[in-house]
Design goal:
- The protein contains 19 helices and 17 strands.
- The chain is of the alpha/beta class.
- It has three domains: about 150 residues, Alpha-helical ferredoxin (Fumarate Reductase Iron-sulfur Protein, Chain B, domain 2, Orthogonal Bundle), CATH 1.10.1060; about 160 residues, FAD/NAD(P)-binding domain (3-Layer(bba) Sandwich), CATH 3.50.50; about 150 residues, FAD/NAD(P)-binding domain (3-Layer(bba) Sandwich), CATH 3.50.50.
- Strands 5-4-3-6-17 form a five-stranded parallel sheet. It has a five-stranded parallel sheet with strand order 8-15-9-10-11. It has a three-stranded antiparallel sheet with strand order 12-13-14, with no helix packed on it.
- α16 links the parallel β10 and β11.
- α5 crosses α9.
């Protein structure tokens, strides 16, 4: 069922008329948007507990009643995984929360995850009709999280309906959001799906890249367990391109391959002093803490605890890193960004939380070198002060150095978060695969199919960098296209 058919069916549901009679749109429009319940900043920087506490059932029922039930719901146009947003929201308004969760699972393999980390303000909520009225949009993300959490806490976790098994085996490389979304859709279609993960835990960037104070691992594990119940098999500590080759997968009977191996290769700035002890990538820093429990005194994985910690970058990963540093005891946790705060790509919610937690924002600053002590450990960074010039190709104003304006700032740990590159292992191991100069796999953007007919790809390995929800959208498109390909093969 495509989106137009879904909307038509949704509009004909008789219970909608009852809801319309119960409250007029003018009354709905006067209800203020709900506010997320959160831990106190002074308390939360002392631990790794989830900062956002979700909304209560009472809050959810009221917020759901704000939805105007638009004849042509534009919110769905902003959702990369095509969630039937009006129906799940109206289910909540009717106090049928488990039905709302069921609606979410029809198209999303990770509703509890997306409700926490998806940038709804740039996706579904940005399309809400309330914007045209000069009002705040319906809190779709909060409601998604509420419905998914309600289902989990009720113990009545539903498994999506599956088509009869068709006997065809499909391989997935990587267990991040793109791979999990693809696996879920293919399992629904009756395929036997095996996900190969290089690390020792399933979840990809959801586990190693996002701190528990923003996305608890237990939430990810519950979503993965639903996929297991759907028949998806997971194999950890298996590196495709090393442990098993593309040809090995064929010999094992796999008829299709979806590559979702991510972008785990960190970038550095290539400036003096980056090889000093104490300078590391955000990938390494977050993986040690999130996946390997390095902050735990009983862990075998070491981590550097600094008093003056600088994170270089302005994206969500940089924000996760600097807030992690604060929780690891940094007295001065600094975010160094070469543009102004207005150009910062991180979510506004994360910026707000960071400021509440005492993070120092050194905007319009750019490191040009690091100096070390006699033991080779970083001790200061040289910061070039910047000003904004003309817009670049992305539309953001380009930072320009202010001549002679350089400050020396004490640091004992520096975390570089200026971007990542795709994992080159899988693309280089498949002979004849078309790869861009940036190392991304070139695919048909509609089908996610590569020039090798049985190889599809999505997420960071195609985009170079993507949000969780965009990666999931890639996985869903690839699943639909691979299904068509295998049927007509």
């Amino acid at each position: 069922m495509d989106q137009k058919e879904m909307i038509k069916a949704m509009r004909s549901e008789p219970w909608r008329e009852e809801l319309r009679k119960a409250m007029k749109n003018k009354e709905r429009g006067e209800i203020p948007r709900v506010r997320m319940n959160e831990l106190d900043p002074a308390y939360r920087i002392t631990n790794n507990e989830e900062v956002s506490l979700g909304i209560t059932k009472e809050q959810a029922l009221v917020e759901a009643s704000r939805c105007l039930d638009c004849p042509d719901p534009s919110c769905m146009q902003g959702c990369p995984v095509s969630i039937n947003i009006p129906t799940f929201v109206k289910n909540i308004e009717r106090n049928e929360i488990l039905e709302a969760a069921k609606t979410l699972k029809m198209t999303s393999a990770l509703p509890a995850v997306c409700g926490r980390v998806c940038p709804q303000e740039k996706q579904c909520e940005s399309k809400c009709i309330y914007h045209k009225m000069g009002k705040e949009p319906v809190a779709i993300g909060y409601l998604e999280r509420f419905a998914a959490d309600f289902e989990r806490e009720s113990g009545n976790i539903a498994t999506p309906e599956l088509a009869p098994a068709n006997g065809k085996k499909i391989a997935v490389v990587g267990s991040g959001p793109a791979g999990l979304a693809f696996a879920g859709d293919m399992a629904k279609l009756g395929y036997s799906v095996t996900v190969f993960e290089a690390l020792h835990e399933i979840g990809g960037v959801l586990k190693y890249g996002i701190p528990e104070f923003r996305l608890p691992n237990t939430i990810v594990d519950v979503e993965i367990e639903v996929l297991r119940k759907m028949g998806v098999q997971f194999l950890t500590d298996c590196i495709i391109g090393k442990t098993l080759s593309y040809d090995d997968l064929h010999e094992m009977g796999f008829e299709g391959l979806f590559v979702a191996s991510g972008a785990g290769l960190p970038r550095f700035m290539n400036i003096e002093g980056e090889n000093l002890i104490g300078v590391m990538s955000a990938n390494e820093y977050l993986t040690r803490v999130n996946l390997m429990d390095a902050a735990n005194p009983e862990s075998d994985t070491p981590i550097l605890f600094g008093k003056n910690v600088a994170i270089i970058g302005g994206g969500n990963t940089a924000m996760d890193s600097v807030r992690t540093a604060r929780r690891l005891g940094a007295e001065r946790a600094m975010l160094v960004y070469r543009r102004s705060e207005e150009e910062m790509p991180a979510r506004l919610e994360e910026v707000h939380h960071a400021k509440e937690e005492g993070i120092e924002f050194l905007t319009l600053c750019n490191p040009v070198s690091y100096k070390g002590n006699e033991r080779g450990h970083v001790k200061t960074m040289m910061l070039q002060r910047m000003e904004l010039g003309e817009p670049d190709a992305s539309g953001r104003r380009s930072p320009v150095a202010i001549e002679g304006a350089i400050d020396e700032v004490p640091v004992d740990v520096v975390v570089v978060s200026v971007g990542v590159s795709p994992n080159p292992l899988v693309p280089s191991s498949i002979e004849g695969l078309n790869v861009s100069k940036w190392g991304t796999i070139i695919v048909n953007q509609d089908t996610m199919q590569s020039d090798i007919s049985d190889v599809f790809a999505g997420g960071d390995i195609v985009r170079g960098g993507a949000t969780v929800i965009l990666a999931m959208g890639d996985g869903r498109r690839a699943a639909a296209a691979m299904d068509e390909y295998l049927k007509t093969k």
